[in-house]
Every structure is written in structure tokens, then in C-alpha cells.
Amino acid sequence: MQYSRRSYRQALSAGDMESFAVAVKETDLWITVDKSVPVSGLPGKVEHFIWQKRRLLEDYIEKDPLFARTLLPHLVQEGAPPIALEMARAGNMAGVGPMAAVAGALAQAVGKWLLRISPQVIVENGGDIFLCCQRPVRVGIFAGESVFSRKLALKLETRGEQRGVCTSSGTVGSSYSMGRADAAVVIADDAALADAVATAAANRVQDEGDLKKALDFARSIPGVKGSLIILGEKLAASGEIQLVEY
Q: Greater confidence, 173 or 34?
């Protein structure tokens, strides 16, 4: 299907930005930087950076295998690398395991690294996004077979502030979810946190009666700016959510 081929990524390109893809094992990134930045050679540098981050994480998991398996909050061992600490912190705040934050954490690590050379950055990692842009950005919502899928987008006006926009689903993709939400989208100051909270919010949705409960949960986490949950023909949102046509 189209989603699995990531054809939706072309919609993330913009006139004042340049995009390219980088993949390392399960980490599959679509990266957008300011057109003022020379992109020649940049994909290779990003790939090297990802290998470094993944190697640190994989080496740590060998010492602490429960880190990669648990679905519950986890205390890391002494000497854990910064990315493992970020993932564990986000998972602990959301009440889920640290791997629930891995896609957002890696997108954020790459994004912050690129901000040293580009005034605007968008890094998408399998539907989980880190962004920092001067202009408004639209992020399309894919929610499987829901009537809202590919019909709506989030409009973000970050004015140069960093944001994480992450999605979890019980009906789309290969990531594990205990819930049935077609999409649980969370906007936060931190992409690792947005990823973990999106997972936890989606886990709470089994039927329409759970939508408010899941939104209230997401809103209770410090650093969360807004959340949106889709279940079939029902959509609920709270916080800094601006919806526009896709």
C-alpha cells in the first residue's frame, strides 16, 4: 500500500527547503533543510551520525536487555548514553517502556545536530517528526481506514521553536499498540516525549468512550502542547491543535 512505500513524504517538501532520505537499519528518515544549506555530501554525514547513535544504543541494550523489551517504565543503568536516558525519561513520564520513544528520540537527535548548519529543519522517522521552522508547517494526518485519513492536516506555527509531532496507531503500521485508535497524535516540546505519550494515549483507546480519557491523560504530561485522537468516524482534540484541509 502507499503508506508502506512512504509516498506521503513528498508532501513534506517546501519551496524554501530541500529534502533527502537516509536509512540505517530500521531508522528510515526523510530530512528537510533550508535551501541555503549545501546538501552535497550531507546525506553521508547524517548516515554516519545515525550509525554512531544507534551503536551507542545497541551497545547499551546488550548490557541492559530489559530496556528493549519492557512495556513499563524503566530505570537505566549507570553509564547509559544520552539517547537511552532521553528515551527512558520520556517513557517514564508517559508510563510506557523506553522503546516507545526510540523513533522520536532519533529524529530529534538528527534534527538538533542539523540545526547547527540549517536555520530550518524537519526530520521524519516513520511518522514521528522533529521540526524547527520559521514559517508555518502543515503535517498531514494518516489514520488508516478512518474517514479523516488524508483529509486533514495539522498547521503548526512554531516561529523557530522546536517541536515533536508523533503518531501512534492500533490499526496502522507494525508498532505494537494495546489500543484501537486509528491515530493518536501528540505535539510536544520534545520529540521523544511526544512519541512516548502518543503510544500511551493510543493504548488507552478501545472505544469512543475512551477518547476524553486519553486526551486528559496526554494533557496532564508536562511538555505536551496538544493532542488529537481518531477512532473511526470520531475525532477528539485538545490543546494547541489547528486543523486545516490536507
A: 34
- Kindly report the average pLDDT of the chain as a whole number: 91
Would you state the pLDDT for residue 13? 47
How many structural domains is the chain composed of? 1
C-alpha cell read off for 117: 548548519
**In this predicted model, what pLDDT tens digit does every residue of 24-41 receive, in sequence order?**
999 999 999 999 999 999
Burial class (CB in 10 A: 0-12, 13-18, 19+), 117: middle
Pair 221, 197: CB distance under 8 Å = yes
For 83-123, how does the pLDDT look when each residue is reduced to its tens digit (9 = 90+)?
Answer: 999 999 999 999 999 999 999 999 999 999 999 999 999 99
Amino acid identity, residue 120?
Q
Q: Is the dihedral of CA 100, 123, 19, 53 positive or negative?
A: negative
Rg (CA), the chain: 17
Report residue 199 as a C-alpha cell. Answer: 503510544
Instruction: Give the contacts of 52 (CB within 8 A, at least 6 positions apart).
Output: none
Q: CATH number of the domain at 141, please.
A: 3.10.520.10
User: Both ends of the chain: CA-CA distance in Å?
Assistant: 19
The boundaries of the domain holding residue 159 are 3-245
